[in-house]
Amino acid sequence: MTAFDTLIAHERRRQRRGLWRASGYAAIVAIASVMLLGLSGWFITAAAVAGLAGTIAAQGFNYMLPSAGIRLLAILRTAGRYGERLASHEAAFGALARIRPALFLGLARGPVEHALALTRGEATARIVQDVNVVEAEFVRLSAVPSMIAASASGMLLCALRGLRPAVALLLCLAGLLTLATVLARRLEAPGREVQRAGGALKDAFAGVADAAADLRCYGVEAQAMAAVEACSRRLAKAQRAQAGVAGCFEFIQAVMLGVAGIATLLLAAPAGAPIAALCALAAVMTIDGAGPVLRSLGQRSAMREATARLDDLLPGAVAEDDAVAIDAAPSIDLLGAHVPAGARVALIGASGTGKTTLVEQLLGLRAGKPGTAAIDGRDIAGIPLAVRRATFGWAPQDAALLAGTIRDNLALGDPLADDAAMWAALADVALGDVIAALLKGLDSWIGEHGVRLSGGERRRLALARAYLVRAPWLVLDEPTEGLDADTEHCVGERLCARLARTGQGLVMVSHRPSMVALCDRHIVVAPDPVVIVALPTDTVPQRRRSSRD
Amino acid sequence: MNSIAKDRTLASRAYLKGVVADGGGVRLSTSLLLLDTVAAIGFAAGLAGGVVAVPQGVDAMLPWALLAGASAVGRGACAMLAARVGASGAYRAKTQLRQRIVDAALHRAPGSDATTGTLMSAAVDEVDAMDGYVSRFLPARMAASIAPLIVLAATAIASPIAVAILVATVFPFLAAMILAGGAAADESRRQFLALARLSGLFADRIGALPVVLAFRAEEREAAALGDAAEDLARRTMRVLRVAFLSSGALEFFAALSVALVAVYAGFNLLGLLPFPVPEKLDLGRAFFVLALAPEFYAPMRRLAAAYHDRQAAETAAERLAAVEKARVAPLPVAPVWSSAAPAIRFESVSIRYDGQDRAAVSDVSLEVRAGTIVALVGPSGSGKSSLLHLLLGLAPLSGGRISIGDHDLAEIGSLAPIAAWMGQSPLILPGTIGSNIALADPSASVERIAEVARIAGLSPMLLARGGLGAVIDARGSGLSGGERRRIALARVLLKPAPVVLLDEPTAHLDAPSEAHLIAAIARACTGRTTIIATHSARLAAIADVVIDLGARA
After folding, report:
1. Facing B270 at nearest CB: one of A50, A81, A228
2. CA quadruple B33, B35, B36, B40: dihedral sign
3. Which residue of B29, B51, B220, B499 is the best one to mutate when testing the A interface, meaning the one whose CB has the most A CBs within 10 A?
4. Tens digits of per-residue pLDDT, B334-344?
5. For residue range B349-369, what is the model confidence (pLDDT) as tens digits?
6. Interface predicted TM-score (ipTM)
7. Which residues are paired to B408 by β-bridges?
8. If contacts are CB pairs under 8 Å, which of residues 61-80 in chain B contact chain A?
9. Is the pTM for the entire model greater than 0.90?
10. Fewer CB atoms near the end CB (10 Å): N or C, chain B?
11. Which among A221, A231, A254 has CB closest to B75?
């Protein structure tokens, strides 16, 4: 059983009450439908026979029971269908509301490279379209019980005449299901193709939409549109083919419906018109009751493909050792240089030498060679990711903010932080006044990737988020790029005060001399990890001096 | 419904009318649905005749059985063909509409606030919402106004009183249907928007996965997403409760009228009706009327079931119309360019995108002298890319002036015709490596393409993949980031453009590849007016002038 199957099975168990309820209602609907038509047919025919036999026979005909039964069954069927729809959708939505986050969690817990390699188009196609297919299948889970109930009641009614109509009905139903299964197997391609083509189209579109500048410069809008158009046609063709498949299922059901009705009518004829009418109409409704199962079979290939694609999102959690006890204030080793707890170290070196890579290796966002770094004397390769990540409060180079409010973003650092702690952290990055001036303060919406903030504000918000993490080390990647000298000075000063207060250690990547100057030791990161520990500040390569420096 | 909502609905409907301008095969699939109704009448007649003929034995039943059988096959064929015709209509409507949307997305006005994500869901998911509208709703609507009349006519032949019963019950039925449409309409519109937001949220969190992981927030974020999803599920259920209740009402009235017809026919046959009626039924007519009664409501129930499709299409239409509205018409002025490298001068230039509180770039002045290389450095968000996009007409010039040689950018709109470009995510189209490079100059000879590929450093890849003819599929055939960048560089080399614009051409490359690429870039830019936006100090080092946009923030 794959990881996704396990997830689905678990949700099915959790929703089993709702699903049982849905199945029960579906069975009621199926039985009521079969009996309603059967009874109506019998009633009319029997009434005609009695009416022909004369007034006395008509007076003696018990019309109260069947006519009341007809009305009761009509009400039962309506109420049952309402209950079934409600219960099955409730179960499906309840399950899906948990499956989507579980997929996210599975993706997050899997190997980092796997999650980060997924394109945006594919990721949304899977989370949206593929999950929708699974949802529709969940709603249809009551199809089989409904069909069983319909066929049981249909055969019971047909058996009133004897075995032959009942057997004929059973054969019709079995034939229909066999035919549908064969058809589902032979027509599997379109369903799979729809799911795949959807993802491919999103990918192709995103690739072209992101390359607006290439399109302009080379005047190749027409070619780009043709490429997207090809994917668009592929998807539309697959959808059309799938609709054709659904049409085939409708055809075989309609034909089998006629065959079953006629066969039972002919076979039950010796029992007299009323029973023959009952058998024929009950048989018709029995085949009608198999409709949801047929539709489910028609969707089977799409469902399988969606399941496979979603399963691919869950590569299996990375195996983790048991928690390793780490000192409350551990020392660290970077590229062979030992750094005691609470120290302040600057990682310096030209662009592209791997400073950010080193930071991402520390946090387990990138695979690293053994010997790159150690925490508390243990190589990071042997330390669980959770412990590594708990050791560092990180401010990434590209602020990487969530679409949400200021509060949402700060809560990422410390979910338990109160407003006072948040304002204090914002004040430490010289952002308190800016945020306080916003209409909604901490609850201001900052937009996708924080577009409503300026570049410098985004960076400082990311910095405040790192401050809030209760970790023994802060890891700040270019924390003051894009800030003017005054703000940078202010941020640096408050950072020093904060470190003195919290006793946290600092690992900083920066090209800014004034920030590098806050550190008591420097590690030069070179393309080939040649490590030099330099103490005097003046050996730091200086890129450019800002005018007011 | 207030007047704003009404206007919105009217606008959506007008838009949808345009989507199916060719009719979408609706007439044909409606005709098939009507034929289906005719076949249903045949089936009812066959069954009724068969039941009446029971006392005469199987031989007498056979012709009726044949009629019923043929009608059943006919119904199946009609349903199948209607599905096919509907799907073909939807196919045409969707592909044509998507073409328009992709075209609008690629020619969107500078500064529109649409992101790739929202455009993607417009071009794919919202266009797909037309499927059910064209293939199900439109034929169902047309059939619902005719098919019941056919059934009534057939019923009238057998029993005018049954017609009266059916007509009398249709009024509460219609009232329930109008209720079903109206009550859920606004709710379900909000519903679609909420679902779109939730999908957007998922996409955002998947994009921000590194941060989520580093802060060990995967559980919390998953829980928050779960809450949002569960909230959506609860609201969806509220909408559905209304929808199910109204469709329950539809079914109730349908079932009630069938039961009424059954009871009436039974009592008429028994001669026990408490009131006098001007007709005396026999078994055949009674059975026929009973078997036909559900068919009277079937077309209307089909329409009610397709209401959801219309709702989805109307919601999508609103957003698609907005995408098309943001399309910009190309500027009519086509300046005559000289082949000499021009100077580019920015005078107090500001860029401010729609819907944003602050300018992306404000008051930037700089000059790029003819044939020199200028590197723009500074943090992300300082406006480097925006300035490059501005030159191509992809960002709005909201203040200041830009001159390119003797031309004013505001008049010519874009210097794209004389520029070569290389960005972070180069455009790769399905074809071959050679055809991808040749996009920059379709008239280039094979030798010339081979030469620029070599200079761009593509030789190792070409060796491994089997030359310029190596096929690249729609997904880029697994080209690495570095290889894509080299293809883009080959294009820069191939296009004889006097201006070169480079946006982070070496981002996310490892140090040795970056060093190689920088050497090739330096060669490509010689003698051309070049602007490079970069974070890399090594790349900035090849520039004649380095301008730090961050330092002035």
Report:
1. A50
2. positive
3. B51
4. 667 777 889 99
5. 988 877 666 677 888 888 999
6. 0.85
7. B403
8. 61, 65, 68-69, 71-73, 75-77, 79-80
9. no
10. N
11. A254
